[in-house]
Specification:
The chain is α/β, with parallel strands linked by helices. The protein has 12 helices and 10 strands. Helix content is about 45%, strand content about 15%.
Length: about 260
Amino acid sequence: MSDILNKIIATKHQEVAAAQTARPMAVVEAEAAARPAPRDFVGAIRAKHRCGQPAIIAEIKKASPSKGVIRPDFRPADIARSYAAHGAACLSVLTDRQYFQGCPEYLQAARAACQLPVLRKDFMVDAYQVAEARAMDADCILLIAAALSLSQMQALEAQALGYGMAVLVEVHNGEELDAALRLNTPLLGINNRNLRTFDVTLDTTLGLLERIPADRIVVTESGIVKPEDVALMRQNKVETFLVGEAFMRAAEPGEELARLFG
């Protein structure tokens, strides 16, 4: 695990402990149970595939640890509407405060502005965060294999599925892939960014493809910045993309989505 990931995970454990003191798990679970049913995240992706189109999980994030502030003029609801108008299948919204300058309110504002299902993009380490995700109306959670044991991932996945949410499990190498394939979720994210060096190469996705069963939906993440990147992935039968930074730097994120995938 990289130093930055270690730092983030340590912070998450501290945040969860503080949050449980402020709002006990029973309170958050009751809020989660009271929310309307989640939107169908996997279904939205498959609907695009049935039409022969790439499924784009369009990300809404203000900043990152490696790049600092990416989008100073940050209005999640406007960005969500722009993405929805230009063909996104789903949204991904950063809710981490300390490292990505996100918050739950950004997710809620983005989801309320459109009909797209929304992934809570955060670093899940505890059951409390899964209940919290459903309470804030998230439709999907992220599990990062580099940060969790197989048993932890299985427990968090079971909890999320119990709420009716989807799960995107993210891997970076073959060892993590082996663990991820023991989960039930069809959504398998491959992050092209090396968490130790922050270098990005699309070969990370391409190198793992032959090991992935046909019933899984491969989501390529990071490094999709030009139409040639999209074409390379589609030539290799990768039809689902999680893209954020390329859109966030554009004046009109949805228009950049349409240009990149046009």
